[in-house]
């Protein structure tokens, strides 16, 4: 038998064997494994190490109303019913929120006092001129806007809500005596939010003007020689776009001594 015939016979025999195995049934070609029944549950293992959390708790706080820095009130204190808790945060949204205090006596919404900062400057005496004039923002290198702790967008949002505004600025270091508080007119002018300079008296440029309040300790002794410890400059207006004050113009006497002048915002309220 030659090689070709032998190969053909081998191939035919292999085909017959495969067919025979396929017809012999599944018991011939498969094996069923019995896994048996499940055993009893073992004892609990030892606890693992505690997890590590990189997150930090939020500094957010809320009042009884549920107002918080992330959920600020969008209304002034005067629009909250008397029986409801007063809001502690205001703002157009979370990013624009700021802390407030409700002045129930005057029914005003006031910027929280903790938001304000104080700034002092030292003005050296100058023998070449009797009076020296300067803007606070230029000399102090620190604008009043920064001292309020509010952004311009937050103040303008308050302007849209409110119908009136008031502000108290305390100035230390001026030579103001209880016997003549009106002398401040020649020493201090204020620049309003809408860029108008105002003084102690109304002028042809603006009927809006500020008032002055001296500490009780100064008015009681009624000294004509000693200056008061400080002077409070008070402003109230129904034109909310005037406040807060953005700058102060000083004209002071520097021939006698150095002056240490400090400015502090005491109160800034809207209604």
UniProtKB/TrEMBL annotation:
<keyword id="KW-0964">Secreted</keyword>
<dbReference type="GO" id="GO:0005576">
    <property type="term" value="C:extracellular region"/>
</dbReference>
<dbReference type="GO" id="GO:0005201">
    <property type="term" value="F:extracellular matrix structural constituent"/>
</dbReference>
<feature type="compositionally biased region" description="Polar residues">
    <location>
        <begin position="70"/>
        <end position="81"/>
    </location>
</feature>
<keyword id="KW-0732">Signal</keyword>
<dbReference type="GO" id="GO:0005581">
    <property type="term" value="C:collagen trimer"/>
</dbReference>
<feature type="signal peptide">
    <location>
        <begin position="1"/>
        <end position="22"/>
    </location>
</feature>
<keyword id="KW-0176">Collagen</keyword>
<feature type="region of interest" description="Disordered">
    <location>
        <begin position="40"/>
        <end position="89"/>
    </location>
</feature>
<dbReference type="InterPro" id="IPR000885">
    <property type="entry name" value="Fib_collagen_C"/>
</dbReference>
<feature type="compositionally biased region" description="Basic and acidic residues">
    <location>
        <begin position="56"/>
        <end position="68"/>
    </location>
</feature>
<feature type="domain" description="Fibrillar collagen NC1">
    <location>
        <begin position="95"/>
        <end position="270"/>
    </location>
</feature>
<protein>
    <submittedName>
        <fullName>Uncharacterized protein LOC114247929</fullName>
    </submittedName>
</protein>
<dbReference type="Pfam" id="PF01410">
    <property type="entry name" value="COLFI"/>
</dbReference>
């Amino acid at each position: 038998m030659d090689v070709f015939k032998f190969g053909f016979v081998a191939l035919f025999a292999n085909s017959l064997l495969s067919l025979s195995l396929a017809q012999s049934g599944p018991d011939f070609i498969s094996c069923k494994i019995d896994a048996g029944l499940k055993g009893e549950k073992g004892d609990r293992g030892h606890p693992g190490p505690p997890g590590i959390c990189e997150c930090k708790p939020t500094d957010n706080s809320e009042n009884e109303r549920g107002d918080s820095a992330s959920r600020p009130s969008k209304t002034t204190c005067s629009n909250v019913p008397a029986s409801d808790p007063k809001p502690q945060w205001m703002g157009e949204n979370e990013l624009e929120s700021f802390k407030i205090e409700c002045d129930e006596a005057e029914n005003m919404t006031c910027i929280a006092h903790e938001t304000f900062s104080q700034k002092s400057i030292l003005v050296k005496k100058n023998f070449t001129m009797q009076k020296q004039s300067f803007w606070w923002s230029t000399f102090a290198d620190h604008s009043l806007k920064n001292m309020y702790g509010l952004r311009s967008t937050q103040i303008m949002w308050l302007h849209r809500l409110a119908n009136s505004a008031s502000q108290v600025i305390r100035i230390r270091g001026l030579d103001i005596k209880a016997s003549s508080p009106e002398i401040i007119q020649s020493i201090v002018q204020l620049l309003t939010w809408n860029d108008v300079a105002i003084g102690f008296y109304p002028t042809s440029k603006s009927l809006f003007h500020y008032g002055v309040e001296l500490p009780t300790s100064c008015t009681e002794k009624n000294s004509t020689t000693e200056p008061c410890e400080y002077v409070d400059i008070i402003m109230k207006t129904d034109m909310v776009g005037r406040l807060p004050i953005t700058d102060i113009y000083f004209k002071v006497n520097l021939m006698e001594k150095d002056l240490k002048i400090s400015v502090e915002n005491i109160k800034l309220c809207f209604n």
